Amino acid sequence: MSTLQRLRTRLGRSGASEGGVVELLAPPWILLVPMSLLLLVMFVGPMVAIVVFSFQTGNSIVATPLEWSIATYEEVVGGVISGEGVYGDVLVNTVAVSATTTALTLIVSYPAAYALARRIKRYKLVFLMLLIIPLFTSVNIRVFGWALFLVQNGVLDSIVGLFGIEEYASLMYQRSTIILGTTYVYLPFMLFPIYLSMLSIEDATIEAAEDLGASSYTLFRRILLPLSKPGIVIGSLFVFVLSLGANVEAEILGGGSIFTIASNIQYSFGYSQNWPLGSTQAVGLLLITVVSGIVILRTIDLREIAERGD
Amino acid sequence: MLQSTNLRAEYGALVAVNDVDIRIETGEFATIVGPSGCGKTTLLRMLAGHQAPTDGRIELDGVDITDAEPQNRPTSLVFQSWALFPHMTVRENIEFPMRNSGLEVGDRVEELLRQVRLDPEIHADKQATELSGGQKQRVALARSLAYEPDILLLDEPLASLDYVLRKRLQRELADLNEELGMTFIYVTHSLESALLMSDKLFVLENGNIIQTGSPEDIYRAPNTKFIAEFMGDANTFELDGATERDGSYEVHAAPFDQTTTVPYEDGRDTPAYLVVRYDDTAVGTELTADLGLTVAVENVLVRGNTVLVECKQPGDDDEYVAEMPVDAFRATGIEKGDTAYLQWNASKSILVPE
């Protein structure tokens, strides 16, 4: 068959399929249907349920007729304002953990990201793999490992004992221990966005700055920092939001003596079986997440980043 | 005066720049020209301080700057990609070097923009990313000039611009060099740029400087066959006989089977090739010039107001080309497939060593 004939046959075939199955699947939005369904069932539905439950008095919508109440909101918001009950402490704990984690991961990641993206050539892959592999392990396993390490009469105890130190305050069940855990667990989420934004800075840009008399400090402040800012912002957003919801770390390393919103929500749903109270706190956490996300993203111009890619 | 002595760069086993000695006077427009991979960019990067030489010295007005950081040398490099700071405006880009070296900003940004023929009113406060290629090139130039370097290094900054714009900017660069009295060192693979702008040419091949001189000198007396062909499209004939006679050579080559006498500069190796440029060569039905050979016309390509006549000798693979005015070619009545004389006058012959 000549090329021309083949072309003609193919053209004929596509003409014949008009109105067929192919045509039906053609509009591109069809391709989004499975994902949209999944989002609807798995995200939007539960969110609505949570909001509805936060205005209820009991644990079941079906058994009792709908009974709207803002009692749980009064309890939580009132508690935060008056300082009575745990809610004030929980809020402070949560924000303190998230903010400190974000700051710590940033301080640790920034120089590392710079070195990996711009300085280190040999063994770079090894370093990156070492950073990625922990992500394949469950957070629970890693955090329990920490607990075994830090707990009294644990691994750290015996190491310290070798140096003759017998008595020291337990490192477990403190806010700083939770922060140590979240810092470690969420470190890659800060490192990789910064690493990628550093990687996208052209060598010539750095060289041009050096060439034009920039000192190391100027190079950092006027070239590296602004050009890696998108990575910093995205990384901060990831780490802050993920730390807000950090539950396992708070549960295990906080050991029931330090509560964050996430662990308190679990407590309300589980131990105290107060779904409306848990839902109210969940709504609160959602609001904090959305607001902080907006605040963080407002600090960069997304359009500027898009244009820089040109 | 900028001087390099035995300047050498190696990448593992590869020698990119091989013991290069160059000497460039203050205010000169020097061009380092050579094909891709000849080591010209490496050489320029060593002069700018972005790459440490494996061996050798660089001196500026007698001061050794071999190991000086780029920040501390009075050179400024205009990058091939221009390397404007994407997060800054045009003004911020140009102010950057001035603030680094503590220069008074004042009206300098406007002044520099006008110098590179950009309207400050329109462009000064644009984001660097909003500019077109030609405008970016001009801003990069203004930014380097703002640093007030003694030596401006240019790494093919015109390569990615279109022909018309490139031509214009070449002229402007030459003017600027004259106007400022600043030393310009330009690196390019394009002969056209090299000839048009330079006071002095360095021809680089495989990391070696193979000829230095004014563009005119090199065009007239190329040192090697490579340079002769690089300096302009040319037909090359391998000589099978060369005898010296009073500063000239009497040479013979099989394809044209004639003996001719060509002047040849003293102190070079015995000539090995006779070179004649396409535009010094013509085709005709009769042999009217001094030298010629019988060829079959293989192809005729019209190139604006000239034609390229591609010819071969029967039983030989070497291709010869004559470039002649369209009218002159039409007047001969020769067509593709005809047999004709490829010919030129003896005075147009150039002899080169191996």
Automatic annotation (TrEMBL), chain A:
CDD domains: TM_PBP2. It is a multi-pass membrane protein. InterPro entries: MetI-like, MetI-like_sf. Its main location: membrane. One of its GO terms (biological process) is transmembrane transport. Gene3D superfamilies: MetI-like. Belongs to the binding-protein-dependent transport system permease family. CysTW subfamily. This is Spermidine/putrescine ABC transporter permease. It comes from Halobellus salinus. The gene is potB.
TrEMBL record, chain B:
GO terms for cellular component: plasma membrane. Coiled coil: none annotated. Its main location: membrane. It comes from the Archaea. It catalyses: tungstate(in) + ATP + H2O = tungstate(out) + ADP + phosphate + H(+). It is a peripheral membrane protein. Residues 2-231 form the ABC transporter domain. Its EC number is 7.3.2.6. Keywords: ATP-binding, Molybdenum, Nucleotide-binding, Transport. GO terms for molecular function: ABC-type tungstate transporter activity; ATP binding; ATP hydrolysis activity. It is found in: Cell membrane. It is an enzyme of class 7 (translocase). The complex is composed of two ATP-binding proteins (WtpC), two transmembrane proteins (WtpB) and a solute-binding protein (WtpA). Part of the ABC transporter complex WtpABC involved in molybdate/tungstate import. Responsible for energy coupling to the transport system. Belongs to the ABC transporter superfamily. Sulfate/tungstate importer (TC 3.A.1.6) family. This is Molybdate/tungstate import ATP-binding protein WtpC. It comes from Halobellus salinus. The gene is potA.
